[in-house]
Amino acid sequence: MKIAVAMSGGVDSSAAAAALREAGHELVGFTMQLWNQRRGLNVDEDGEPLPSRCCSLDDVYDARRVAEELGFPFYVLNLEKDFERDVVEPFVRSYLEGETPIPCVACNSRLKFASLDRLARSLGCEKVATGHYARVEFDEAADRFRLLRGRDARKDQSYFLWELTQEQLSRTLFPLGELTKTETREIARRAGLAVAEKSESQEICFVPDGDYAGFIDRYLDAEGRATEAPGAGEIVNARGEAVGEHAGVHRYTVGQRRGIGVAASRPLYVVQIDARRNRVVVGEESELSSREFVARGVNWIAFDEPSEPVRAEVRVRYRHEAAPATVEMIGGRTARVTFDEPQRAITPGQATVFYRGDEVLGGGWIARGDAP
C-alpha cells in the first residue's frame, strides 16, 4: 500500500515507519510544525529557548533524517495557526474556567489525524500510520472498526484516541500496537536509525518546563490580554470559610496537596476550583472522592449512541486504573457516569474513557459542576 506516516522525530514514529518500509509499503512522511517556537514564550532567565523533546525544530530535523535513511519522501506541514486556535487557546481558556485540560486528545483527533488524512488522500495514500501504542480491528459482524488498547499495558495510548471517528479509524494503522517499547527500539536499531536511543517526551509540547500557570500568564500578556489572568482570591473550606488566599485559580488543580499555602493540622487538598467566584476549595483527602460526574462531547466508537445505560470500566485520567461504572446518555452528547465505588480526584477538563476489556467503547470530557 501507499501509506502516509506521521513522523514526530521520536523513536516510536520512526520505528513504525521502519516496520512498514521493511514490509514493502510505499511511504510518504509528514511532520507537523505545531507550536510557533518564534513566539519566545518558553525561555530561560538568559532568554534562551527551553529544551523540548516534542514538536521542536530539532524533532523536525530528526524526522527528515529518518525519512532520508529509509528512502522515502518527506514533507513538513505548517499547522501553527490551527494548533494555536484549536489546541493552545482552548487549553488556556479551560484553565481560566477552573479546569485541568489535557490538550493531547484534541490535538490527536481534531488536528493531527484530520490534517494528515486530508493530505494523505490528496496524495493517493490508502492509509495513515502513526507511532501510537494502540490497535484497530474491523468487526465484520458489527460492520465497525474497533479501537483497542496496545498490547504493552505500560505504553498503551488508547486513552488519547477516543475522539477518533469510524471514518478516521477505517484509514488508520498503528504498527506498534502489538509491540513493547523494547521491541520498538530494536526495530529502530535494526534499521540503523540515529534516533534509536532518543529519550521520550513527557511534557506538553508547548509547555516544556511544566509550568502551566506561568505559560498562561506569558501567553495572555503576549496576546494583550493580561487582564484576563485570574487575580488573587480566597481559599475556603467546604463550609465556605476563608482559610487563606490564592494567587490565581489557574495555579491549582483538583487533588493538589503541595503548594496550597495553607497551614493546617491535617493535610489539605484542592477539592474544587470555583472560577466564577474566584475561589479555591480545600478539604481533607476523604472529600476528594466521588461516585458520579457528567461527561460532555461524548463520542461512541464501539456502537452508535446507546439508548440504554452501558456498563463499562471507566478511566478519569491517563494513569487512573479503570473502575466499574454505568454510563447513561442524558441528551446532547452528554452522559452521566456513576461508579460502583467512589473514585479519587475526578477532575473537570480531563478526558474520561469507557472500556470493555481491551476495547475502547467511547469517551468524553469531564464537565464542571457549574457548567451549563
CATH class of the largest domain: Alpha Beta
**SSE order, one letter for each helix or strand:** EHEHEHHEEEHEHHEEEEEEEEEE
Tell me, what's the shape? globular
**SS summary, helix count:** 7
Q: Please outline the major beta sheet.
A: 6 strands, antiparallel, barrel
According to CATH, the fold-level topology of the largest domain is Rossmann fold
**Terminal CA distance:** 47 Å
Task: Spell out the blueprint of helices and strands.
Layout: E1 2-6, H1 11-22, E2 26-33, H2 57-70, E3 74-78, H3 80-96, H4 103-122, E4 127-129, E5 134-139, E6 144-149, H5 166-170, E7 172-173, H6 181-190, H7 212-222, E8 233-236, E9 242-246, E10 269-274, E11 279-283, E12 289-300, E13 310-315, E14 323-331, E15 334-344, E16 351-356, E17 359-366
Parallel strand pairs: 1-2, 1-4, 2-3, 4-7, 8-11
Antiparallel strand pairs: 5-6, 6-17, 8-9, 10-11, 12-15, 12-17, 13-14, 13-16, 14-15, 16-17
Helix pairs in contact: 1-2, 1-6, 3-4
Short description:
This protein has about 375 residues and is α/β, with parallel strands linked by helices. Helix content is about 25%, strand content about 30%. The protein has helices at about 10-20, 55-70, 80-95, 105-120, 165-170, 180-190, 210-220; strands spanning about 1-5, 25-35, 75-80, 125-130, 135-140, 145-150, 170-175, 235, 240-245, 270-275, 280-285, 290-300, 310-315, 325-330, 335-345, 350-355, 360-365.
